[in-house]
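Suppose you are handed a protein chain with no further information: no name, no annotation, nothing but its sequence. What can you learn? This example shows the usual starting point.
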Amino acid sequence: MRPAIRVIISSDKPYTVAKFIVNELMSKGYKVLVDGALKEGNPVPWPDAAYFAVKRLVKGEADTAVLICFTGTGITIAANKVKGIRAALCLDPETARLARLLNNANVLTLSARLITEYLAKEIIDTWFSVKEPDHSRADRFKRLEEIEKAEFK
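A reasonable first move is to predict its three-dimensional structure. Written in structure tokens, the prediction is:
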């Protein structure tokens, strides 16, 4: 039997949609680790909600992460400041699929303002349906790693 996929979920506020995602993933057998406001029970700055969660991801504590802030933009920017993170703000299932498939994204970010529970379920299901990136894009992934290596010294 394959071990459960480990997912860190973090948000800057304890949004209803963030709690929904935690419960949805747990009900599907994912190992869910909470961070940010979901862990603290109080609002935290969105840079911290992103940073502490993705640091855990790059340390190997999880396989992927889902981050949520009001617009989704701030938490995406903050996450992408950490070496090894490829966070993608996805507002629909197709963008989530393509972010995983064509961009090898390893962090899903969402807007609490725009994402309903129904849409969150669709996006999450689509994100996790992509098991590996499109290997025909390996040259682009390699180039991204080269840029990251040059910029994160």
